[in-house]
Amino acid sequence: MRMSRYFLPILKETPADAQIVSHRLMLRSGMIRQASAGIYSWLPLGYRVLQRIERIVHEEQIRVGHNPMLMPTLQSADLWRESGRYDDYGEEMLRITDRHGRDMLYGPTNEELITDIVRSSVQSYRDLPLTLYHVQWKFRDEVRPRFGVMRGREFLMKDGYNFDVDRESAIHAYNRHMVSYLRTYERMGLKAIPMRAETGPIGGDHSHEFLVLAETGESAVFFDSRILDLSLGGRDVDTDSSEDCAAVFEAWTAPYARTDETHDPAKFEAAVPEDRRMNSRAIEVGQIFYFGTKYSEPMDARVVNEDGDRVFVHMGSHGIGVSRLAGAIIEASHDERGIVWPESVAPFHLGIVNLKQGDGDTDSASERIFARAGAAGLDALYDDRNERAGPKFATMDLIGLPWRITVGPRCLRAGMVELTCRRTGETDELEPDAAIERVRLSCHGP
Fold this sequence. Notes:
By secondary structure, the chain is an alpha+beta fold. It has helices at about 20-30, 45-65, 75-85, 110-120, 165-185, 240-255, 265-270, 320-330, 360-375, 390-400, 410-415, 430-445, and strands spanning about 30-35, 40, 65-70, 75, 95, 105, 130-140, 155-165, 190-195, 205-215, 220-225, 255-260, 275-290, 300-305, 310, 315-320, 335, 340, 350-355, 380-385, 405, 415-420, 425-430. It has two domains: about 5-340, Bira Bifunctional Protein, Domain 2 (BirA Bifunctional Protein, domain 2); about 350-445, Rossmann fold, CATH 3.40.50.
C-alpha cells in the first residue's frame, strides 16, 4: 500500500479523555475514531490489526476441531425468558421492541441461541462432542465506558460453546480450550495467565480468566512468579487426548493465580514463598466456563446416551475479546515513540521510507523494493509522500511496523539500504534483496 493513497489520519495531539496508553496510541495512529460513547469506527490501520487477530483466533479454533459459524446480533427475548436470564442479566443488556411489539435484544452473549440450535438438531450421543463458535459484534451498555476499546459498549468477540454427553467429556473440552487459548495468545506475543475467576451472569461452577499483566489493567491479580516461566513453546499438544490436555491444565493452574474476586490471602501466604508472591494489575482478554446443565435443563436440550436414556447435555463456553486484544497488545508492547507490534498481528510487515521523493534514483529503488516485498509475500506500507524525513520516521515509529527499509542517496551510491528493527532499534546496511529476505525470514520463517 502506498501512503499517498492510504487513509491514515495521524493526530499530533492526544485527546484529553484518552487515559491509558492503548487508547492514546490507537487514536494518535489513526486506528480508531469514536462514534459515540464506548463505540468506535475501526479505520483502515486498526481494521487490518483486527483482521490479523481474528485470523489467528480462527486458525487456533479450527486446529482443535471447533466449527465456525455466525449467529445474528439480534435475538428473541423469548429464549432468554426460557433460560431465566432475561430479567436477571441487568441493565447492560440493550432491550428492543420491534414494530410488531415483539421483545428483542442486542446479544451480549449467545448461550440461549446456540442451545436452541443444538437442541433442535442433535439427538444422539453419537453427534457429540460438538463445539461451535463464531466471531461477532456484541453490545453491553456499560454504565461508564472508558479506556477506548478496553471497556467499550460495542466490541468484537469470539464466543464458542461445547456440547458433551457427560461431565467428564465436558471437562476435557474445558482443558482443550485452555490449551487452544494459551497457543492463541502466545502466537500474538502475549503472556496470558489463566486465573481462577468468578462465573458472573454466565453461570457455572468452573471458570478461568486469561489476563495480561499491565499497569493500566482493571483487575488486581495475585500469583506465584513461577507461572511466568511457563510456556507451550510451540509444543504440539495432542488436544484429542484428555491426558495431554489435563497435564497442560495442571501445569498452568497448579501455581497460585487469582483475580481480586477469588483471591484468598491466607491461602496465598501458605502456598507461595514470600519471594515468589506477586501482586500486579492485569487486563482480561478471555475466559472459559464449564456450566454443566445450567442451560440445557431449562431449555430441555437432551440427547439419547449409550444406554438409551435421554440425558441433558453438558455445556461450556469460551470467549476471547478480539477487539480488546488490540488494546491489550499495545499496553504490553509500546515505547515512548509509539506502538511496537509483534510481527504476527502487525498491520504491515514492513515500512518503506523514501528519503528523497522526486529523485529518480531513490524513486526507482523504492519502487523496486516495494514490488519485491510484495512478491516475497510481505505486506509493505510505502511512504511515498513528498515530506521531510523526520515526519516520515515519526509516523513509522508511531504506527509500530516491525521493520523499516530506508532508501536514501548516500546508501544507494553503495548499492545499499538501511534496515531497522522497530523492537530493538538496531539498523544494518544491506543490499535491497538481502534486506527483504531478512524481513521475510523473520515474518514467515524458512
